[in-house]
Amino acid sequence: MTDLHPIPEAAEAPRPVRPAGVRGRMVRPVLWFLLMVSAVLNMVFSSSGTNVLAGIGFGLATLACVAALIAHHYRNRRR
Hints:
The protein is mostly helical. It has three helices and no strands. It has helices at residues 8-11, 22-48, 52-76.
């Protein structure tokens, strides 16, 4: 006999609570710092026009920092 009204909580395993260590607390500020530095350097190299590849590289680094911050947020958020 199949269950017509399954309990949704039974299908999901509880997420383990990870203790926030020193490394875990330092990831977000370091990512924000790298985001700001790479964004400023991207603006400098893009506006000066001297080295286009450096501007592209710092733009990609900025996007990588944004993606890492989003992933870190969703991985460590509380429900």
